[in-house]
Amino acid sequence: MKMKYGEMAFLGGIVLAVLIGLFSSYIPLSMLPIAMALLVVLGLVVGVMNVSEKEVQKFLIATIALLAATTSLGPLTTAMIGWGGIMFTLASWITGFLGALAAFIAPAAFVVALKAIYDMAQN
Prior knowledge:
It is a single chain. This protein has one domain (5-122). Helix content is 82%, strand content 0%. The protein is built from five helices and no strands. It is elongated, with a radius of gyration of 16 Å. 23% of the residues are buried.
């Protein structure tokens, strides 16, 4: 079974977001913008290639939920950092993953939303 480029971009983006989350404290600051830019590009590819017209509404609702959850978990991770010990490390992983996930999902949502607006304007 052959994978499509959009599917590979989606899986690659998720894997990269997880890796950035786990190793965010070890990634040199000069490399972090490159990793995030790669996530943005993968997100754009997913938005262009992966979401069909039938999936637009579900995708955009799921994206809103994901980005809202990402934002709302910020105070929890901030509190976890204050607890110290293993919680500091866990909070670092969660924060890194959520930031990377947002950098991956937001461009895809942007492209899909633009396509939806364009389709509505055509009708």
